[in-house]
């Protein structure tokens, strides 16, 4: 369970988060939507400790994340927007990164076998294992990023704009993969996106971040029925409405 | 007018001091991680290959041509007071004490500080460094420590090889162009060369290697966004490493040889 309370973050004079409070139950898939530059990525980075919040608390399973960060990260996986694969390592070495070093280290052959199995889980054959990330298409890189995120069966997974830059068919494939992987593993998931097809495919619950605050949250069914002008403008992609088109 | 000039001066001084403080903290963090596990031996060996072995051609060429030019210069200068015979010993002392480590260090700065800063800077802008954190890996330990350690150990070895090649450059010109007898050139080289001449150059090499990798890692990890940010980080790393090499060379020479 992840609990965020009254989170504030500013960069110089620019206030990005102004009191965000959120709660994600164990095994739940929360999707945070919002326009570009509304602080979705900053929210994720605050949870991970990559950005220090100015105020507020973040708890994972009841413990402040600052104190339990190593423990939290040891059972954590993340798919980055640009996949963030390590250029100098082959595909299987990327997937098995945790298994080749540190406390979860295993024998090389065993680590490779796990990597090949996880690659198969995201629809990639063993022939890509020895390629370098630069030799893969954008969609394949995303799949490898997903395989790396699930390599050690994490209990918490974050997805940062998982379908950005992909064609609609590949977006559908990635959404289906995320959905099945999260359900299968029973992991707690937070996804940030502005792609409504992802929202519908992945979310148990949706939260809309706007102007540094959670403007609205609810289920997919509630999202479709809400009259909140911010949510309706966003999900229907209208230029007119309370959200300024030019930010 | 005067107040605004003073304010601008103050801002520059404060910014320089803050920069020095950040570098000092970064250095302290790298040093503190050197002795603490986990150790990334694969990354260390890869860095030894990249920084040491692959820099050998450029350091060797630099030493060869420097030794050759030094022999010509010392011969021409020595001829003014009939002291042409000092060429072998001065070439050797000049190479191992000063030119070997300094020019070798500068060539490594150009080749290695730039590539480290560009690689780590690109990793930063493509979120690979954030990815390391999410994989329970400390980026400083994984990226900076192996490179700094490898450079500190491999640059003295490069300097040693450069010393030999530089002396050989002087010997080639001395025997082929300046009429020295090969055996007496080599004897004169050995006769006046002391162990500390070589040792001090190797210590300098280690210091320069440390500075080169440290600057590459520091500017790479603090790279700005996009191609421009990485370009600026690369340029800053090479400039800072080069200036620090020259400044620390003076300080080390003062410590080692001042009477």
Structure description:
The complex is a heterodimer of chains A (247) and B (259). Chain A has 247 residues and is of the alpha/beta class. Chain A is 36% helix and 25% strand. Chain A is built from 10 helices and 10 strands. In chain A, β4 (55-60) and β5 (63-64) form a beta hairpin. In chain A, α5 (108-121) packs across α6 (138-149), α6 (138-149) packs parallel to α7 and α7 runs parallel beside α8 (196-202). Chain A is globular, with a radius of gyration of 18 Å. The model of chain A has no long low-confidence stretch (mean pLDDT 89). By secondary structure, chain B is mostly helical. Chain B has one domain (41-257). Chain B contains 9 helices and no strands. Chain B has helices spanning 2-34, 41-52, 56-79, 87-125, 128-134, 139-176, 182-192, 195-221, 226-257. The longest helix of chain B is centred in the middle third of the chain and has 39 residues, at 87-125. Chains A and B meet through α2 and β6 of A and α5 of B.
Which secondary structure elements does this structure contain, and how are they paired or packed?
The complex is a heterodimer of chains A (247) and B (259).
Chain A: E1 2-11, E2 14-24, E3 29-33, H1 40-48, E4 55-60, E5 63-64, H2 69-74, E6 76-79, H3 91-95, H4 97-100, H5 108-121, H6 138-149, E7 156-160, H7 168-185, E8 188-193, H8 196-202, E9 205-210, E10 213-218, H9 220-225, H10 229-236
Parallel strand pairs in A: 3-8, 3-9, 6-7, 7-8
Antiparallel strand pairs in A: 1-2, 1-4, 4-5, 9-10
Helix pairs in contact in A: 5-6, 6-7, 7-8
Chain B: H1 2-34, H2 41-52, H3 56-79, H4 87-125, H5 128-134, H6 139-176, H7 182-192, H8 195-221, H9 226-257
Helix pairs in contact in B: 1-6, 2-6, 3-4, 3-6, 4-6, 4-7, 4-8, 4-9, 6-7, 6-8, 8-9
């Amino acid at each position: 369970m992840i609990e965020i309370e009254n989170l504030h973050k500013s960069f110089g004079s620019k206030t990005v988060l102004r009191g965000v409070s959120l709660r994600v139950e164990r095994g739940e898939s929360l999707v945070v939507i919002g326009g570009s530059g509304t602080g979705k990525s900053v929210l994720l980075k605050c949870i991970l400790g990559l950005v220090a919040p100015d105020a507020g608390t973040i708890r994972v399973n009841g413990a402040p994340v600052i104190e339990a960060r190593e423990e939290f990260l040891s059972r954590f996986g993340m798919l980055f927007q640009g996949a963030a694969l390590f250029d100098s390592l082959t595909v299987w070495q990327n997937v098995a990164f945790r298994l080749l070093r540190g406390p979860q280290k295993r024998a090389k052959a065993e680590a490779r076998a796990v990597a090949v199995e996880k690659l198969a889980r995201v629809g990639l054959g063993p022939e890509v294992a020895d390629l370098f990330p630069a030799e893969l298409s954008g969609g394949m890189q995303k799949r490898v990023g997903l395989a790396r995120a699930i390599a050690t069966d994490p209990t918490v997974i974050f997805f940062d704009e998982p379908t950005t830059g992909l064609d609609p068919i590949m977006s559908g494939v990635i959404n289906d993969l995320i959905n099945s992987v999260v359900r299968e593993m029973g992991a707690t998931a937070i996804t940030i996106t502005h792609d409504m097809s992802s929202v519908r495919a992945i979310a148990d619950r949706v939260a809309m971040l706007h102007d540094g605050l959670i403007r609205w949250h609810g289920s997919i069914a509630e999202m479709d029925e809400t009259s909140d002008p911010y949510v309706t403008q966003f999900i229907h992609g209208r230029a007119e409405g309370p959200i300024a088109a030019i930010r | 007018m005067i107040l605004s000039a003073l304010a601008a001066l103050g801002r520059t001084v404060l910014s320089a001091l803050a920069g020095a403080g950040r570098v000092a903290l970064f250095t302290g963090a790298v040093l503190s991680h050197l002795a603490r596990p986990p150790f990334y031996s694969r990354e260390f060996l890869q860095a030894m290959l990249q920084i040491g072995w692959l820099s050998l051609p450029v350091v060797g060429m630099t030493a060869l041509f420097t030794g050759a030019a030094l022999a010509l210069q010392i011969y021409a200068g020595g001829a003014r007071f009939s002291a042409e015979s000092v060429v072998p010993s001065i070439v050797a002392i000049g190479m191992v004490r000063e030119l070997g480590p300094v020019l070798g260090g500068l060539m490594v700065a150009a080749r290695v500080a730039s590539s480290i800063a560009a690689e780590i800077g690109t990793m930063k802008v493509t979120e690979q460094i954030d990815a390391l954190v999410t994989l329970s890996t400390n980026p400083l330990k994984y990226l900076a420590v192996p490179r700094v350690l490898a450079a500190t150990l491999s640059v003295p070895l490069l300097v040693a090889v450069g010393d030999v090649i530089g002396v050989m450059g002087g010997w080639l010109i001395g025997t082929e162009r300046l009429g020295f007898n090969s055996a007496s050139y080599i004897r004169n080289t050995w006769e006046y060369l002391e162990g500390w001449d070589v040792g001090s150059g190797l210590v300098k090499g280690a210091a320069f290697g440390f500075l080169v990798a440290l600057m590459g890692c520091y500017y790479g990890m603090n790279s700005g966004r996009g191609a421009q940010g990485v370009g600026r980080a690369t340029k800053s790393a090479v400039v800072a490493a080069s200036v620090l090499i020259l400044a620390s060379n003076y300080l080390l020479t003062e410590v080692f040889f001042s009477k």
